[in-house]
Amino acid sequence: MRTEINLPSVIGRGYASFWKTKKRYRVVKGGRGSKKSTTAAMWFIYNIMKHPKANALVVRKTYNTHKDSTYAQLKWAASNLGVSEYWRFTLSPLEAIYTPTGQKIIFRGFDDPLKLTSMTVNVGKLCWVWLEEAYEIENESDFDTLDESIRGEMPSGLWKQITITFNPWVNSHWTKSRFFDKEFPDSFTLTTTYKCNEWLDQGDRKRIEDLEFTNPDRFKVVGLGEYGIPGGTFFDEFRTDVHVIEPFPIPSHWQRYRVLDYGLDMLAHYWVAIDTKGYAYFYKELYESDLIISEAAKRIAGMTIESIRITYAPPDLWNRRQETGKSARDLFLENGVLLSKASNDRVQGWLNVKEWLKPFKTRDEHTGEEITTARLKIFKNCINLIRTIPQLQRDEKDPNDVATEPHEITHAPDAVRYFCSMRTVPTRVEKKALDGFYTDAELEDLGYKQKEIKKVK
User: Fold this and answer.
1) What pLDDT, on a 0 to 100 scale, did the predictor assign at position 446?
2) Does CATH number 3.40.190.80 belong to domain 245-420?
3) For the chain, how long is the longest CA-to-CA vector?
4) C-alpha to C-alpha distance for 129 and 125, rounded to whole angstroms
5) Every domain of the chain and the residues it spans
6) How far is CA 410 from CA 84, 402, 417, in A?
7) Nearest Cα to 44, choosing from 152, 126, 114, 148?
8) Phi-psi label, residue 384: left if phi above 0, alpha if psi -120 to 50, beta otherwise
9) Residue 314 CA neighbour count, 13 Å, CB half
């Protein structure tokens, strides 16, 4: 194949890891204008040419939608890479053929299952599949059928891979539970937005950004590439790009809290750190079902190596059982976990959570760049909290409350509600570490009064 293609100049930024991964499943959800489909098209054209025994299959829900989408995108990709002279695109049958070797890109649809499962190629092996607009595929079993179409040993240097691209319109779609709610070693996942498309014109960029204010629910899907909910979500403040962060070593002097929601059906327990500005970081998660109280307490104690100031829990754990005269709180205490009673005012509690989650603009203290942040942050390892908060919907009878069904997704957010309902104060900087590191103005920002500053200095 041609070796003079300058990939960075034609692909742009945001897709380096996508381009390099060889995992079985390569899954990309993205908003409008995030160039996910055009990048995928260029990858297939480039790599068919690079690997002389590789062939590819492109699939959509219905066959006749290919011509104006994937077929056109692959044709554009060949032109954009400067290799159109080496490719022949035919309409009957719908195929893209790399003429020097006879390798093919074949098009199929789920509306013709027989053709989908019976494909042959004349050169090499069918080793790569591109499933475009995967949100159209309603049944996960249909995807499993497609997955099974890649069979047999691969020639040396080749690998089996399914590339899945889509807009995440509905958060109940099987792609979410299969690929994004859990991490699997054979899956690569990526969320892209319009911000990684440096070739998007300013008019299109503005139309997307305007949705943040005119239609926040749609902006989450179109602008941020996040899963949407029909009718909207209760916490429209929640944004993955704002609230979910990479784990970092938490300073030892930050105050630590624990908070839990307990039931035999699920123990949702979180460790929370408070920084010197009063921001909360949910940094560790225990999310496990079928634990009796003694087992739950042992699991909590076993995962706690830090000093905890308070552990908040719902008031119903203080209810005494008639047969024993003991409450769940008593049993936790007997097993080494001291609980403090949190408020259980649902409406006010959810309003408190909204305030903690509310994004706001500020300046990066190091670069001076304007950024969007929030008072509540979640380490990305707290996967169930990240999964459930954006799925909560309003109660049909009380729009100020959260719907209690499906019940499984309420446990982790309830724990957050208990925490946000209680008073916490910013961590005070250790006085022994202050001298020589902070100016008087900075100490004032951290909450110290002038008379205290003099003592510290």
Assistant:
1) 45
2) no
3) 85
4) 12
5) 7-222, 245-420, 427-457
6) 53, 9, 10
7) 126
8) alpha
9) 20
Q: How many residues make up the chain in this entry? A: 457
Amino acid at 339: L
Integer Cα distance of 447 and 428 in angstroms: 8
Q: Where are the beta strands (DSSP E) in 78-186?
A: 87-91, 94-98, 103-109, 125-132, 161-166
Amino acid identity at 313: A
Burial class of residue 327 in the structure, from the number of CB atoms within 10 Å of its CB (0-12 exposed, 13-18 middle, 19+ buried) = middle
Q: Encode pLDDT of 281-317 as tens digits.
A: 999 999 998 899 999 999 999 999 999 999 999 999 9
Beta strands, E only, 33-118 = 54-60, 87-91, 94-98, 103-109
pLDDT, tens digit, 9 for 90 and up, residues 31-41 = 888 999 999 99
CATH of 7-222, picked from 3.40.50.1460, 1.10.10.1100, 3.40.50.300, 3.30.1050.10, is: 3.40.50.300
